[in-house]
Backbone:
Protein backbone atom coordinates (compact mmCIF):
# COMPACT_ATOMS: atom_id res chain seq x y z
CA UNK A 1 0.00 0.00 0.00
CA UNK A 2 1.25 3.49 -0.81
CA UNK A 3 2.17 5.86 2.06
CA UNK A 4 -0.54 8.29 0.94
CA UNK A 5 -3.07 5.46 1.34
CA UNK A 6 -1.98 4.96 4.95
CA UNK A 7 -2.59 8.66 5.67
CA UNK A 8 -6.04 8.35 4.12
CA UNK A 9 -6.88 5.42 6.38
CA UNK A 10 -5.76 7.34 9.46
CA UNK A 11 -7.75 10.44 8.52
CA UNK A 12 -10.89 8.34 8.05
CA UNK A 13 -10.34 6.30 11.19
CA UNK A 14 -9.69 9.14 13.64
CA UNK A 15 -13.13 10.83 13.36
CA UNK A 16 -14.85 7.47 13.73
CA UNK A 17 -12.86 6.69 16.86
CA UNK A 18 -13.51 10.15 18.24
CA UNK A 19 -17.28 9.79 18.09
CA UNK A 20 -18.74 9.60 21.59
CA UNK A 21 -20.44 6.40 22.63
CA UNK A 22 -24.21 6.43 22.70
CA UNK A 23 -26.22 6.46 25.92
CA UNK A 24 -27.70 3.09 26.84
CA UNK A 25 -30.93 2.64 28.77
CA UNK A 26 -29.21 1.39 31.99
CA UNK A 27 -26.82 4.34 31.83
CA UNK A 28 -29.72 6.75 31.45
CA UNK A 29 -31.50 5.29 34.50
CA UNK A 30 -28.33 5.39 36.61
CA UNK A 31 -27.72 8.99 35.56
CA UNK A 32 -31.24 9.94 36.60
CA UNK A 33 -30.76 8.23 39.95
CA UNK A 34 -27.60 10.21 40.55
CA UNK A 35 -28.63 13.65 39.32
CA UNK A 36 -32.41 14.02 39.26
CA UNK A 37 -33.39 16.66 41.87
CA UNK A 38 -36.30 14.66 43.31
CA UNK A 39 -33.99 11.73 44.10
CA UNK A 40 -31.40 14.05 45.63
CA UNK A 41 -34.12 15.64 47.77
CA UNK A 42 -35.25 12.22 49.00
CA UNK A 43 -31.67 11.29 49.87
CA UNK A 44 -31.24 14.51 51.84
CA UNK A 45 -34.45 13.80 53.74
CA UNK A 46 -33.07 10.36 54.62
CA UNK A 47 -29.84 12.01 55.83
CA UNK A 48 -31.85 14.42 57.98
CA UNK A 49 -33.80 11.50 59.47
CA UNK A 50 -30.52 9.71 60.24
CA UNK A 51 -29.29 12.83 62.05
CA UNK A 52 -32.53 12.74 64.04
CA UNK A 53 -31.33 9.49 65.66
CA UNK A 54 -28.20 11.23 66.93
CA UNK A 55 -30.38 14.06 68.22
CA UNK A 56 -32.59 11.64 70.15
CA UNK A 57 -29.54 9.94 71.68
CA UNK A 58 -28.33 13.25 73.13
CA UNK A 59 -31.14 12.92 75.70
CA UNK A 60 -28.93 10.37 77.51
CA UNK A 61 -26.29 13.06 78.13
CA UNK A 62 -26.35 15.35 81.17
CA UNK A 63 -27.37 18.96 80.73
CA UNK A 64 -25.04 21.76 81.84
CA UNK A 65 -26.15 25.40 81.93
CA UNK A 66 -23.85 28.34 82.61
CA UNK A 67 -24.95 31.81 83.69
CA UNK A 68 -23.26 35.16 84.06
CA UNK A 69 -25.10 38.40 84.86
CA UNK A 70 -24.32 42.04 85.65
CA UNK A 71 -27.05 44.53 86.54
CA UNK A 72 -27.66 47.92 88.11
CA UNK A 73 -30.95 48.06 90.02
CA UNK A 74 -32.78 49.30 93.08
CA UNK A 75 -33.09 47.07 96.18
CA UNK A 76 -36.64 47.63 97.49
CA UNK A 77 -38.03 44.25 98.60
CA UNK A 78 -41.49 43.40 99.96
CA UNK A 79 -43.08 40.52 101.79
CA UNK A 80 -45.61 38.42 99.91
CA UNK A 81 -46.07 35.59 97.45
CA UNK A 82 -45.71 36.00 93.68
CA UNK A 83 -47.03 33.29 91.42
CA UNK A 84 -44.78 31.97 88.64
CA UNK A 85 -44.68 34.34 85.70
CA UNK A 86 -42.23 35.78 83.22
CA UNK A 87 -42.64 39.54 83.67
CA UNK A 88 -41.51 40.67 87.14
CA UNK A 89 -37.86 39.80 87.94
CA UNK A 90 -37.11 38.14 91.28
CA UNK A 91 -35.55 40.08 94.16
CA UNK A 92 -33.74 38.78 97.24
CA UNK A 93 -32.69 40.43 100.49
CA UNK A 94 -34.30 41.94 103.59
CA UNK A 95 -37.37 44.17 103.54
CA UNK A 96 -36.37 47.75 104.27
CA UNK A 97 -39.86 49.03 104.99
CA UNK A 98 -39.38 52.03 102.74
CA UNK A 99 -38.94 52.83 99.06
CA UNK A 100 -35.70 54.33 97.81
CA UNK A 101 -34.44 55.14 94.31
CA UNK A 102 -30.84 54.44 95.20
CA UNK A 103 -29.39 51.67 93.05
CA UNK A 104 -26.38 49.36 93.29
CA UNK A 105 -24.41 46.93 91.22
CA UNK A 106 -25.32 43.24 91.25
CA UNK A 107 -23.48 40.25 89.77
CA UNK A 108 -24.19 36.56 89.51
CA UNK A 109 -22.39 33.57 88.01
CA UNK A 110 -23.36 29.94 88.25
CA UNK A 111 -23.39 26.45 86.79
CA UNK A 112 -26.17 23.85 86.92
CA UNK A 113 -25.64 20.24 85.83
CA UNK A 114 -28.76 18.06 85.49
CA UNK A 115 -29.03 14.41 84.50
CA UNK A 116 -31.80 11.82 84.45
CA UNK A 117 -30.42 8.53 85.82
CA UNK A 118 -33.50 6.62 84.67
CA UNK A 119 -36.59 7.53 82.68
CA UNK A 120 -38.67 4.32 82.45
CA UNK A 121 -37.67 3.79 78.80
CA UNK A 122 -38.71 7.21 77.47
CA UNK A 123 -35.36 8.02 75.89
CA UNK A 124 -35.07 4.58 74.35
CA UNK A 125 -38.58 4.97 72.90
CA UNK A 126 -37.60 8.37 71.48
CA UNK A 127 -34.53 6.84 69.82
CA UNK A 128 -36.76 4.08 68.43
CA UNK A 129 -39.13 6.68 67.00
CA UNK A 130 -36.20 8.46 65.32
CA UNK A 131 -34.99 5.13 63.91
CA UNK A 132 -38.46 4.40 62.55
CA UNK A 133 -38.51 7.84 60.90
CA UNK A 134 -35.13 7.10 59.33
CA UNK A 135 -36.38 3.76 57.99
CA UNK A 136 -39.44 5.42 56.51
CA UNK A 137 -37.30 8.10 54.83
CA UNK A 138 -35.08 5.38 53.36
CA UNK A 139 -38.11 3.48 52.08
CA UNK A 140 -39.53 6.65 50.54
CA UNK A 141 -36.19 7.20 48.81
CA UNK A 142 -36.48 3.74 47.27
CA UNK A 143 -39.99 4.60 46.06
CA UNK A 144 -38.70 7.80 44.47
CA UNK A 145 -35.86 5.92 42.78
CA UNK A 146 -38.26 3.32 41.42
CA UNK A 147 -40.72 5.86 40.05
CA UNK A 148 -38.06 8.11 38.55
CA UNK A 149 -36.11 5.20 37.09
CA UNK A 150 -39.22 3.66 35.51
CA UNK A 151 -40.27 7.00 34.04
CA UNK A 152 -36.80 7.63 32.60
CA UNK A 153 -36.64 4.14 31.11
CA UNK A 154 -40.09 4.60 29.55
CA UNK A 155 -38.97 7.94 28.08
CA UNK A 156 -35.90 6.19 26.63
CA UNK A 157 -38.07 3.50 25.00
CA UNK A 158 -40.48 6.14 23.71
CA UNK A 159 -37.62 8.01 22.07
CA UNK A 160 -36.34 4.83 20.43
CA UNK A 161 -39.84 4.06 19.19
CA UNK A 162 -40.11 7.55 17.72
CA UNK A 163 -36.75 7.10 15.97
CA UNK A 164 -37.88 3.81 14.45
CA UNK A 165 -41.12 5.44 13.30
CA UNK A 166 -39.11 8.17 11.60
CA UNK A 167 -36.99 5.56 9.77
CA UNK A 168 -40.08 3.74 8.54
CA UNK A 169 -41.70 7.02 7.48
CA UNK A 170 -38.53 7.98 5.59
CA UNK A 171 -38.62 4.66 3.76
CA UNK A 172 -42.28 5.29 2.90
CA UNK A 173 -41.42 8.73 1.50
CA UNK A 174 -38.65 7.25 -0.62
CA UNK A 175 -40.98 4.59 -2.08
CA UNK A 176 -43.66 7.19 -2.79
CA UNK A 177 -41.07 9.42 -4.45
CA UNK A 178 -39.86 6.60 -6.74
CA UNK A 179 -43.44 5.70 -7.71
CA UNK A 180 -44.26 9.36 -8.33
CA UNK A 181 -41.26 9.79 -10.62
CA UNK A 182 -42.24 6.67 -12.55
CA UNK A 183 -45.86 7.74 -12.92
CA UNK A 184 -44.92 11.28 -13.95
CA UNK A 185 -42.76 9.81 -16.71
CA UNK A 186 -45.56 7.49 -17.85
CA UNK A 187 -48.06 10.36 -17.87
CA UNK A 188 -45.72 12.50 -19.96
CA UNK A 189 -45.41 9.61 -22.39
CA UNK A 190 -49.23 9.43 -22.42
CA UNK A 191 -49.09 5.84 -21.21
CA UNK A 192 -51.11 6.70 -18.08
CA UNK A 193 -53.93 9.14 -17.50
CA UNK A 194 -53.21 12.51 -15.89
CA UNK A 195 -55.29 11.53 -12.86
CA UNK A 196 -52.58 9.03 -11.90
CA UNK A 197 -50.02 11.85 -11.74
CA UNK A 198 -52.25 13.86 -9.41
CA UNK A 199 -52.93 10.81 -7.24
CA UNK A 200 -49.24 9.91 -6.96
CA UNK A 201 -48.36 13.51 -6.05
CA UNK A 202 -51.02 13.44 -3.33
CA UNK A 203 -49.68 10.13 -1.98
CA UNK A 204 -46.14 11.57 -1.90
CA UNK A 205 -47.38 14.66 -0.05
CA UNK A 206 -49.22 12.49 2.48
CA UNK A 207 -46.10 10.38 3.05
CA UNK A 208 -44.07 13.52 3.64
CA UNK A 209 -46.70 14.78 6.07
CA UNK A 210 -46.49 11.53 8.00
CA UNK A 211 -42.71 11.93 8.11
CA UNK A 212 -43.03 15.45 9.48
CA UNK A 213 -45.41 14.25 12.20
CA UNK A 214 -43.07 11.39 13.05
CA UNK A 215 -40.10 13.78 13.30
CA UNK A 216 -42.15 16.07 15.53
CA UNK A 217 -42.99 13.19 17.86
CA UNK A 218 -39.33 12.17 17.90
CA UNK A 219 -38.19 15.65 18.91
CA UNK A 220 -40.83 15.88 21.63
CA UNK A 221 -39.90 12.48 23.08
CA UNK A 222 -36.20 13.36 22.91
CA UNK A 223 -36.89 16.60 24.80
CA UNK A 224 -38.83 14.65 27.45
CA UNK A 225 -35.91 12.27 27.90
CA UNK A 226 -33.47 15.18 28.09
CA UNK A 227 -35.62 16.70 30.84
CA UNK A 228 -35.13 13.59 32.97
CA UNK A 229 -31.40 13.58 32.28
CA UNK A 230 -30.90 17.31 32.73
CA UNK A 231 -29.37 17.54 29.24
CA UNK A 232 -30.11 19.04 25.84
CA UNK A 233 -32.30 16.94 23.58
CA UNK A 234 -30.28 17.63 20.44
CA UNK A 235 -27.07 16.46 22.13
CA UNK A 236 -28.41 13.02 23.04
CA UNK A 237 -27.12 9.97 21.18
CA UNK A 238 -28.95 6.81 22.14
CA UNK A 239 -27.44 3.35 22.00
CA UNK A 240 -30.32 0.97 21.31
CA UNK A 241 -28.39 -2.06 22.55
CA UNK A 242 -30.62 -5.15 22.59
CA UNK A 243 -33.85 -3.14 22.72
CA UNK A 244 -34.78 -3.76 19.08
CA UNK A 245 -34.63 -7.51 19.70
CA UNK A 246 -37.09 -9.50 21.75
CA UNK A 247 -35.98 -9.96 25.36
CA UNK A 248 -35.63 -13.36 26.92
CA UNK A 249 -38.27 -14.97 29.06
CA UNK A 250 -39.07 -13.44 32.41
CA UNK A 251 -37.29 -15.32 35.18
CA UNK A 252 -39.36 -17.13 37.78
CA UNK A 253 -39.38 -16.29 41.46
CA UNK A 254 -41.24 -12.98 41.32
CA UNK A 255 -40.92 -10.81 44.47
CA UNK A 256 -43.89 -10.63 46.80
CA UNK A 257 -46.05 -7.51 46.78
CA UNK A 258 -45.11 -6.91 50.43
CA UNK A 259 -41.50 -6.32 49.31
CA UNK A 260 -42.46 -3.56 46.88
CA UNK A 261 -40.85 -0.22 47.87
CA UNK A 262 -44.25 1.41 48.15
CA UNK A 263 -45.42 -1.34 50.51
CA UNK A 264 -42.23 -1.08 52.53
CA UNK A 265 -42.69 2.68 52.80
CA UNK A 266 -46.27 2.33 54.08
CA UNK A 267 -45.18 -0.40 56.49
CA UNK A 268 -42.44 1.92 57.73
CA UNK A 269 -45.10 4.57 58.28
CA UNK A 270 -47.00 2.11 60.48
CA UNK A 271 -43.80 1.54 62.47
CA UNK A 272 -43.44 5.30 62.95
CA UNK A 273 -46.95 5.46 64.43
CA UNK A 274 -46.22 2.51 66.71
CA UNK A 275 -42.99 4.13 67.88
CA UNK A 276 -44.93 7.31 68.66
CA UNK A 277 -47.34 5.26 70.76
CA UNK A 278 -44.43 3.83 72.76
CA UNK A 279 -43.20 7.34 73.47
CA UNK A 280 -46.67 8.33 74.70
CA UNK A 281 -46.90 5.19 76.86
CA UNK A 282 -43.74 6.26 78.68
CA UNK A 283 -44.55 9.94 78.97
CA UNK A 284 -46.77 9.72 82.08
CA UNK A 285 -44.03 8.76 84.50
CA UNK A 286 -42.17 10.73 87.17
CA UNK A 287 -39.03 12.46 85.97
CA UNK A 288 -36.01 12.08 88.25
CA UNK A 289 -33.17 14.56 87.82
CA UNK A 290 -29.90 14.54 89.71
CA UNK A 291 -28.76 18.16 89.96
CA UNK A 292 -25.55 19.83 91.02
CA UNK A 293 -25.07 23.59 91.15
CA UNK A 294 -22.40 26.04 92.12
CA UNK A 295 -22.96 29.79 92.03
CA UNK A 296 -21.75 33.10 93.40
CA UNK A 297 -23.39 36.48 93.80
CA UNK A 298 -22.27 39.99 94.60
CA UNK A 299 -24.29 43.09 95.57
CA UNK A 300 -23.55 46.65 96.52
CA UNK A 301 -26.48 46.58 99.00
CA UNK A 302 -25.95 45.75 102.71
CA UNK A 303 -28.43 44.05 105.10
CA UNK A 304 -28.80 47.22 107.15
CA UNK A 305 -30.05 49.19 104.15
CA UNK A 306 -26.81 51.00 103.38
CA UNK A 307 -24.77 50.66 100.21
CA UNK A 308 -21.10 50.15 99.51
CA UNK A 309 -18.79 52.17 97.36
CA UNK A 310 -19.20 52.97 93.65
CA UNK A 311 -17.65 49.68 92.62
CA UNK A 312 -19.30 47.49 95.25
CA UNK A 313 -21.12 44.53 93.76
CA UNK A 314 -19.19 44.46 90.48
CA UNK A 315 -17.75 41.06 91.42
CA UNK A 316 -19.12 38.00 93.24
CA UNK A 317 -18.48 37.95 96.97
CA UNK A 318 -20.76 35.15 98.26
CA UNK A 319 -20.39 31.54 97.05
CA UNK A 320 -22.68 28.53 97.36
CA UNK A 321 -23.06 25.01 96.07
CA UNK A 322 -25.96 22.58 96.05
CA UNK A 323 -26.49 18.88 95.28
CA UNK A 324 -29.79 17.06 95.16
CA UNK A 325 -32.49 15.24 93.21
CA UNK A 326 -35.66 16.69 91.75
CA UNK A 327 -38.75 14.62 91.04
CA UNK A 328 -41.48 15.92 88.73
CA UNK A 329 -44.73 14.14 87.98
CA UNK A 330 -47.21 15.61 85.45
CA UNK A 331 -50.27 14.20 87.22
CA UNK A 332 -52.84 16.12 85.19
CA UNK A 333 -51.29 15.28 81.80
CA UNK A 334 -53.02 11.90 81.64
CA UNK A 335 -56.19 13.09 79.81
CA UNK A 336 -54.07 14.78 77.13
CA UNK A 337 -51.82 11.71 76.80
CA UNK A 338 -54.84 9.43 76.53
CA UNK A 339 -56.29 11.62 73.76
CA UNK A 340 -52.97 11.54 71.92
CA UNK A 341 -52.89 7.75 72.19
CA UNK A 342 -56.36 7.57 70.67
CA UNK A 343 -55.16 9.77 67.81
CA UNK A 344 -52.14 7.53 67.29
CA UNK A 345 -54.30 4.42 67.34
CA UNK A 346 -56.59 5.90 64.68
CA UNK A 347 -53.56 6.83 62.58
CA UNK A 348 -52.24 3.29 62.87
CA UNK A 349 -55.55 1.82 61.71
CA UNK A 350 -55.59 4.29 58.81
CA UNK A 351 -52.05 3.37 57.73
CA UNK A 352 -52.85 -0.32 58.04
CA UNK A 353 -55.90 0.08 55.81
CA UNK A 354 -53.82 1.93 53.23
CA UNK A 355 -51.21 -0.83 53.39
CA UNK A 356 -53.82 -3.54 52.80
CA UNK A 357 -55.29 -1.53 49.92
CA UNK A 358 -51.83 -1.10 48.39
CA UNK A 359 -51.13 -4.83 48.51
CA UNK A 360 -54.44 -5.45 46.75
CA UNK A 361 -53.66 -2.82 44.10
CA UNK A 362 -50.14 -4.12 43.54
CA UNK A 363 -51.48 -7.61 42.94
CA UNK A 364 -53.83 -6.25 40.29
CA UNK A 365 -51.07 -4.17 38.68
CA UNK A 366 -48.79 -7.20 38.44
CA UNK A 367 -51.52 -9.31 36.82
CA UNK A 368 -52.33 -6.56 34.30
CA UNK A 369 -48.64 -6.10 33.48
CA UNK A 370 -48.20 -9.84 32.95
CA UNK A 371 -51.22 -9.91 30.64
CA UNK A 372 -49.86 -6.92 28.68
CA UNK A 373 -46.46 -8.59 28.37
CA UNK A 374 -47.99 -11.79 27.08
CA UNK A 375 -50.06 -9.85 24.55
CA UNK A 376 -47.02 -7.85 23.39
CA UNK A 377 -45.07 -11.06 22.84
CA UNK A 378 -47.88 -12.54 20.79
CA UNK A 379 -48.06 -9.39 18.67
CA UNK A 380 -44.30 -9.56 18.12
CA UNK A 381 -44.71 -13.10 16.76
CA UNK A 382 -47.03 -11.92 13.98
CA UNK A 383 -45.43 -8.65 12.89
CA UNK A 384 -42.65 -10.37 10.87
CA UNK A 385 -45.32 -12.32 8.96
CA UNK A 386 -47.26 -9.08 8.45
CA UNK A 387 -44.13 -7.33 7.13
CA UNK A 388 -43.23 -10.18 4.75
CA UNK A 389 -46.75 -10.30 3.36
CA UNK A 390 -46.85 -6.50 2.93
CA UNK A 391 -43.54 -6.54 1.03
CA UNK A 392 -44.75 -9.32 -1.25
CA UNK A 393 -48.02 -7.49 -1.87
CA UNK A 394 -46.15 -4.27 -2.68
CA UNK A 395 -43.87 -6.02 -5.17
CA UNK A 396 -46.77 -7.83 -6.85
CA UNK A 397 -49.02 -4.77 -7.10
CA UNK A 398 -46.15 -2.63 -8.44
CA UNK A 399 -45.38 -5.25 -11.12
CA UNK A 400 -49.04 -5.52 -12.07
CA UNK A 401 -49.32 -1.74 -12.32
CA UNK A 402 -46.32 -1.55 -14.62
CA UNK A 403 -47.92 -4.26 -16.74
CA UNK A 404 -51.17 -2.33 -16.86
CA UNK A 405 -53.09 -4.90 -14.81
CA UNK A 406 -53.62 -2.78 -11.68
CA UNK A 407 -54.68 0.75 -10.90
CA UNK A 408 -52.76 3.33 -8.90
CA UNK A 409 -55.11 3.06 -5.93
CA UNK A 410 -53.91 -0.49 -5.37
CA UNK A 411 -50.28 0.66 -5.48
CA UNK A 412 -50.95 3.45 -2.97
CA UNK A 413 -52.77 1.06 -0.64
CA UNK A 414 -49.92 -1.44 -0.86
CA UNK A 415 -47.41 1.30 -0.01
CA UNK A 416 -49.37 2.38 3.05
CA UNK A 417 -49.70 -1.22 4.22
CA UNK A 418 -45.95 -1.74 3.82
CA UNK A 419 -45.09 1.42 5.72
CA UNK A 420 -47.46 0.51 8.56
CA UNK A 421 -46.09 -3.04 8.63
CA UNK A 422 -42.54 -1.70 8.90
CA UNK A 423 -43.55 0.57 11.78
CA UNK A 424 -45.41 -2.23 13.57
CA UNK A 425 -42.50 -4.64 13.15
CA UNK A 426 -39.90 -2.13 14.36
CA UNK A 427 -42.02 -1.24 17.40
CA UNK A 428 -43.03 -4.79 18.31
CA UNK A 429 -39.82 -5.55 20.22
CA UNK A 430 -39.95 -2.15 21.94
CA UNK A 431 -43.54 -2.91 22.93
CA UNK A 432 -42.38 -6.08 24.64
CA UNK A 433 -39.62 -4.17 26.43
CA UNK A 434 -42.09 -1.52 27.56
CA UNK A 435 -44.46 -4.19 28.91
CA UNK A 436 -41.54 -5.87 30.65
CA UNK A 437 -40.61 -2.52 32.21
CA UNK A 438 -44.18 -2.09 33.47
CA UNK A 439 -44.08 -5.57 34.99
CA UNK A 440 -40.78 -4.94 36.78
CA UNK A 441 -42.03 -1.59 38.03
CA UNK A 442 -45.20 -3.25 39.36
CA UNK A 443 -43.02 -5.83 41.08
CA UNK A 444 -40.90 -3.04 42.58
CA UNK A 445 -37.48 -4.04 41.22
CA UNK A 446 -35.92 -2.62 38.04
CA UNK A 447 -32.70 -4.59 38.50
CA UNK A 448 -33.63 -7.59 36.31
CA UNK A 449 -34.94 -5.29 33.57
CA UNK A 450 -31.75 -3.21 33.53
CA UNK A 451 -29.64 -6.38 33.48
CA UNK A 452 -31.52 -7.61 30.40
CA UNK A 453 -31.18 -4.22 28.71
CA UNK A 454 -27.39 -4.06 29.00
Residues:
Amino acid sequence: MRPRSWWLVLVLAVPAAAQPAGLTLPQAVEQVWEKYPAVRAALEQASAAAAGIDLARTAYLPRADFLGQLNRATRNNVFGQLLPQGVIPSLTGPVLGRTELANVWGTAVGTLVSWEPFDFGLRRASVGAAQAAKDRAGAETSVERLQVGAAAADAFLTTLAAQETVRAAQAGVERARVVDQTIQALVKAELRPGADASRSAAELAQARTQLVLAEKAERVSRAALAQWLGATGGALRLDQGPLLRLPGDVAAGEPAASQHPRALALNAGIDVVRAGQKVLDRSWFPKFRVQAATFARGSGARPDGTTGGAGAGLGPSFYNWALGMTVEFPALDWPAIRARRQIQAARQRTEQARYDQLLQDLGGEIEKAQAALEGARRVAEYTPLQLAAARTLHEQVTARYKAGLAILVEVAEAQRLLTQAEIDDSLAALGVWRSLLALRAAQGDLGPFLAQAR
